[in-house]
Structure prediction request, 532 residues.
Amino acid sequence: MQLRYVYSELGQGLRRNLSMHLAVVLTLFVSLTLVGIGVLFNQQASKAADHWGNQLQITVYLCRTNDSSAVCPNAVTDAQKTEISQVVQDNPEVDDFHFESSEQALDKARELYGDELFSGDNPAITAEDMPQTIWITLQDPEQYEGITSAVQGLDGVSKVRDMREQVAPILESINMLQWVALGTAGFLVFAALLLVANTIRLAAFARRKEIGIMRLVGASTLYIALPFLLEALVTALIGVALAVGALWGFMYFGIAELSQNRLKFVPWIGWDEFWLAAGAVAILGPLLTLLPTLVLTRKYLKV
Amino acid sequence: MIRFEKVTKAYPGHPHPALDNISVDVEKGEFVFLVGSSGSGKSTFLRLVLREYRPSSGRVYVAGKEINRLASWKVPRLRRDIGTVFQDFRLLPNKTVTENVAFALQVIGKSRKEIKDLVPETLEMVGLSGKGDRMPDELSGGEQQRVAVARAFVNRPMILIADEPTGNLDPTTSVGIMKLLDRINRTGTTVVMATHDSGIVDQMRKRVIELENGHVVRDQAQGVYGHQN
Prediction:
């Protein structure tokens, strides 16, 4: 097959339909960026939920040495822990629960704030500063008063925190942002598909004479469709490159900036999640242009 | 080379079939005129040979292949054995004469070397040597049709199909094109030509198949255009 011919056709096709290709590229760019942002928010939401527990969880802080709470004269003993877990286990509102040791709590904190606070000869925070906790998952998020009051007065319990009050609004906004991004992306993806279809129709119309002759002299279907497929691929790749660039900007100037300087208490997504979103965009983009091209070239360029 | 066995072709929405149970046999190397009024089924006949359509019933054999059963992806290969010429030339206006002829070879993947050998040779055969760099709109109608014939023949097909090739040309120019088709026929290529041009048919004295309302009403070895009583 003469690649020279295919490339010159590709160049001609891209030039001839420049405005349509630009429209496709821009629509793809915006929709893919939104898809990527949706994916990032989705991971942000699950990361936050992992860290704080989901909306079904409440946390029981156990007494530690030098606890500031008045109900804690000493650190919690093993016997007290056994009794508390018995109460938790017997409560009908509880679905599941687990202990988190001081060391695990320290690890979580270290992950969030970085190593400096915790290392060196005289670290600012050690495992002893971190309370042991019991993480309780509820059967029903509405029914928590029973377990809260049952555990509240027990010896060795410092306080019961219902994180839902603080975490729920944050999780909800992240979730909402995710759906807004994905919903808008859905509409734009649809628009992109229609634009691709129109572009191909125009291109096939502009080249109908050549295509007719190609069919007559026995050019294979692939040979006839190849310039169209390459055009679709080129527009997709440009759209993907722009979208990945925009996502990178979003990460670099948005998330990284926020996570390093402000809002440190939130566990932010990092570059791993960025690459995942970029990968999703890189797969989706070519699919969005190649699939309609394959379907429509079969329709318009039938031998 | 071309065989129709009880072929019927009906189009959806049309009460009468375009071809109605016709059987025709064209041998290798024959020159056949297909005559008949508009709507008699000539174009349908040619399109069945090119496998643009499949017959509604019956069998069509082209170059030894039963084309009803030919998979779609094999159709391009079949068409490489068939050259086609039309009334309206169908040249690419933005390509030179040489490029137009070379296009037919490029798109079926011939090497540059082959193209370089075959194109000038074919242009010379159709009487256009020296005009390879012209654009189609710089040529007369007869010359344009010669380019189309060159494009159809450059791949040395077994069959040449011509659908009213002289329909847009004056009688003198038409004679030139007919001489060219005759020459191509003499190289062993089977030629099937649909035409309304009675003068040409009468002059050439070749086999004539006349269609009327989808039926073969005449199949004559050395016929003329009109009925001979």
The interface with chain A takes residues 50, 72-73, 75-82, 84, 90, 92, 103-104, 106-109, 112, 151, 155 of chain B (CB under 8 Å). Residues 92-156 of chain B form one domain. The first helix of chain B runs from residue 42 to 49.
